[in-house]
Amino acid sequence: MTWLLIVGFAVSSSLDNLGAGISYGIRRIRVGVLSNLIIAMICFTFSESGILFGQWLSEVLPGILPVLISAFVMMVIGLRIVLLAIPRKQSTPPEEKEDQSDASSLKDLLQHPEKADKDKSGSIGVGESVVLGIALSANAVTNGLSAGLMGLSPLAISLTAAQGSFITIWIGVVIGRKVAGVRIGSFTLGQFGTLISGVILLMIACNSLFD
């Protein structure tokens, strides 16, 4: 069961990266090996930090409180991810939308990862990969915090999350180049991957409560 939880956390952390990779593939934006490695290293660092903080909390908090907090955090993040993935009607005029995108937030990058290519060069450079890595690793922190509260191995979680990040971005770019325009119901492939990421977190949260 422990390894299933570790894999579940890794998959949940990585599906946003898959969505980003698909978005880049569709737009023919290249993600080089070095840039992908930088994103994976940031994911590892964020995940490790979250786990260590979670482990510290689990030692300080009494009884089953760490498990309850872990489940609550995962449920909140899982629901937020699911809501972010649900398509919404665009009510903002295109001109205003372009102005707003100039100051892109982490949330904006998660929803529109192609905006990380600031110089419109058609590839994600080293500096751009740092910004993208931070945006994509936000989930790794909260996942790591929950994993730490559950007492899971920091190294195992962080390594699988980093490996998953590297692999899913690479696979996503390849898929995106071949299946541009493919949709699953009202979802794009990237949105569907994000939706599954949130659902997995909700499943892990429920499992930790009833285990």
From TrEMBL:
Q: What InterPro entries does the database record attribute to this sequence?
A: Mntp/YtaF (IPR003810), Spore_YtaF (IPR014205)
UniProt keywords (A-Z) are:
Cell membrane, Membrane, Transmembrane, Transmembrane helix
Entry keyword annotation includes Transmembrane helix? yes
- Entry keyword annotation includes Acetylation: no
* Chain segments annotated as transmembrane: 6-26, 33-57, 63-86, 155-175, 187-210
Q: What is this protein called?
A: Sporulation protein
